C-alpha cells in the first residue's frame, strides 16, 4: 500500500472524534481546487476531515446567497468563505464564533496588515480568519501572441485598444473574459481606476458619491466599456473566468484582465509565468493596488462548538500552511511575517506594489468583488453595469441614474 494512502488512513483513524467539518466556498477552478487540496491535506494531518460544499460562480455572489438561505433554515455549514463588509454583517447576526484565542496565539494584532485587521475584527474581537490578499488590477499577457503582433505591453488604454484591434484583425480573441456580471463589473472597475485615479475611484465606487458617479470620468469609463463590448465577440454566455484563462493558455486570447487567482490557474496548468504569460498592472493603474481578501467565518451551531472552531482556526492560522496556500492560490499572504521565498515573480511584484501602494494611500478595496459596499448594492450595481455592457440600447445617462438610485438605497 502506498505510503500516502496508509498515512491518510492512519490520520483519519486518529481523527478527533467529532466528525467532519463542512466548508462552503466557491473555489472550483483548477488553481482554486489545488489550493483547497493543500487546505484539506493540512486539516487531515490535524485529524480533521473536510466536507466540501462548493458553489459554482466565481466572485462568490451565489455562494453568499446559499449561505443566507442555509442560515435562515438553521442549517449553516461549519465554515464559510467570505469577503469584506459581509463579515461584520454576519457578526451582527450573532451566529459566528469569535476566534480570539487563535488571534492571540498567533499575535495577529502585531502581524496582520492593518487593513486585514479592520476587515476581520469587530468589537467582539476577531470573528474571521483572513487567508488571502488578491490584487485585481492585473493585465495577463500572452507573450507568444504579443510577439506575433509585434507589439509591446500596453501601459495606457489607448495602447490597449490599439493592441486589441490588431489582435482582432489577426483572428485572435483580444481580451478573454467570462460573460458574468461580476467579471464585466471588475473590468469596468479597472477602467474607472484608470480614467479617474485612486481618489476618484474611491469616491465614485466605494463611497458612492453622486457627483462622482454622475461625472465625465465615469462617462469616459462607460464609453470605453462599450467600446470593449463592441470589440470582443460575445464569448460563451455565462463563461466562467477560468474558461477565459484557458483561452489565454491555449494561445487563443492575447489578454485577460483580472485578479491573481488567474495566476493560480496558470501555475496549476504548468504555465511558465511570467515567461510565457506575463503579469502587468492594468493600463494606467501602475501605482494602484486594487484588492480583495478571502476570509473564513466559523458558524456557531450545536454541532460545531467554539472549541471545535478554535481547533480548525489554529490549524489554518499556521504560517507555513498560509504560505503554502497563497503560493498555490496566486495571492499574497495577509501576514507581514510570512516570507515570500518560493513565490512566483508576479506574487513578489504584487507584494512589493502592495507595500508601496499602502504607504502612499493607493491601496483600494474592490467594490465589484465584495470589499466595499453591502452585497445587495454591490450585486445591483454589477448587474446594471453588465446590462449596459450587453445592451447597446442602454445609455450612459440611464446606467448612471440607476447606480445613483442604488447608492441612495445603501
Ligand atoms: C474572488 C475570490 C478569489 C477567487 C475569485 C474567482 O471573490 O476572492 O479567491 O476565488 O473570486 O472565483
From TrEMBL:
<dbReference type="GO" id="GO:0042597">
    <property type="term" value="C:periplasmic space"/>
</dbReference>
<keyword id="KW-0732">Signal</keyword>
<keyword id="KW-0813">Transport</keyword>
<comment type="similarity">
    <text>Belongs to the bacterial solute-binding protein 1 family.</text>
</comment>
<dbReference type="Pfam" id="PF13416">
    <property type="entry name" value="SBP_bac_8"/>
</dbReference>
<dbReference type="InterPro" id="IPR006059">
    <property type="entry name" value="SBP"/>
</dbReference>
<dbReference type="InterPro" id="IPR050490">
    <property type="entry name" value="Bact_solute-bd_prot1"/>
</dbReference>
<protein>
    <recommendedName>
        <fullName>Probable sugar-binding periplasmic protein</fullName>
    </recommendedName>
</protein>
<comment type="function">
    <text>Part of a binding-protein-dependent transport system for a sugar.</text>
</comment>
